[in-house]
């Protein structure tokens, strides 16, 4: 689902909760999932219904959502937040960049080297 949504132009999602698999897949694509409390989520829904063209922005560093109605404190899991801030959301790229370290570790493992 996240790939289809990304291809449709979505880059971030704001909700009260997200399924772990959905949120993990989003992070792997560099998409942001931020959760808001029930009251803030309702306030944001009402604000967007009144003005669907308004700009809504997410600050990953401060975990805030800003809309016409003000600034709301959200939550992004710390590991996910760090990966997004450091540009390390792509696990394949991380593995490719760590090739030397992976080979060095493999050499120290008996079950890889045949004891």
CATH superfamily annotation = Aconitase, domain 4
The CATH class turns out to be: Alpha Beta
Computed CA radius of gyration, to the nearest angstrom: 19 Å
β-strand number: 5
Q: How do the helices and strands follow one another from N- to C-terminus? A: HEHEHEEEHHHH
Which band does the percent of strand residues land in?
A: 15-25%
Strand order of the largest sheet: 3-4-5
* Helical content (DSSP H or I, runs of 4+): 40-55%
CATH fold label: Aconitase, domain 4
- Tally of separate domains: 1
Structural class: alpha+beta
CATH architecture: Alpha-Beta Barrel
Q: Main sheet?
A: 3 strands, antiparallel
Distance between the termini: 44 Å
The backbone outline, from C-alpha atoms, is: elongated
Average pLDDT figure: 92
Query: Can you count the helices?
Result: 7
Parts with pLDDT < 50 across at least 5 consecutive residues:
none
What's this entry about, in short?
With about 120 residues, the protein is α+β, with helices and mostly antiparallel strands.
């Amino acid at each position: 689902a996240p790939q289809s949504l990304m291809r449709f132009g979505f880059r971030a999602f704001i909700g009260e909760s997200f399924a772990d698999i959905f949120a993990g897949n989003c992070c792997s694509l560099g998409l942001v999932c931020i959760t808001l409390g029930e009251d803030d989520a309702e306030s944001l829904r009402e604000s967007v219904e009144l003005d669907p063209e308004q700009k809504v922005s997410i600050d990953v560093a401060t975990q805030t959502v800003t809309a016409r109605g003000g600034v709301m404190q959200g939550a992004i899991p710390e590991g996910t937040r760090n990966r997004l801030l450091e540009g390390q959301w792509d696990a394949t790229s991380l593995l490719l960049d760590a090739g030397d370290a992976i080979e060095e570790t493999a050499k120290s493992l008996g079950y890889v080297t045949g004891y």
